[in-house]
Write a structure and sequence with these properties.
117 residues; alpha+beta; Aspartate Aminotransferase, domain 1; 6 strands
Length: 117
């Protein structure tokens, strides 16, 4: 069995505080405003928050499922080919991404500058 974005949403939205949003013009899932995953522009790949350690393990274990582009090399994200991943594995990945996104603090909002009259 493989995943699609509907399955990803169903699994993620069952986690506390997850909400549907957008990121870079694509559907995304966030926790307290922090991105945890988003659909890539091709509609078949998921960009998922992870740790560098977990990402290295995923890339080594299943290179047909998990991969990187040069753009993501320096960031703790992994690309996932949805048709290649089982929903049980996706659930585990979403739980990990949720924990990471939940622990991040939102950057403080910039105070509006006072206008001089």
């Amino acid at each position: 069995m493989s995943c699609d974005y509907k399955i990803v949403c169903r699994l993620a939205l069952a986690l506390p505080g997850v909400e549907e949003s957008t990121s870079y013009g694509t559907p995304a899932l966030k926790v307290k405003g922090q991105l945890m995953t988003r659909l890539w522009e091709d509609g078949k790949t998921l960009v998922m928050k992870t740790t560098f350690e977990q990402r290295d393990e995923l890339l080594a274990a299943e290179p047909d499922t998990y991969y990187l582009t040069d753009h993501y090399a320096g960031y703790p994200w992994v690309l996932i080919r949805l048709p290649h991943v089982h929903p049980d594995a996706m659930s585990d990945l979403l739980h990990a991404a949720h924990a990471l996104a939940s622990s991040e603090k939102r950057p403080p909002r910039r105070k509006a500058a006072r206008r001089r009259q």
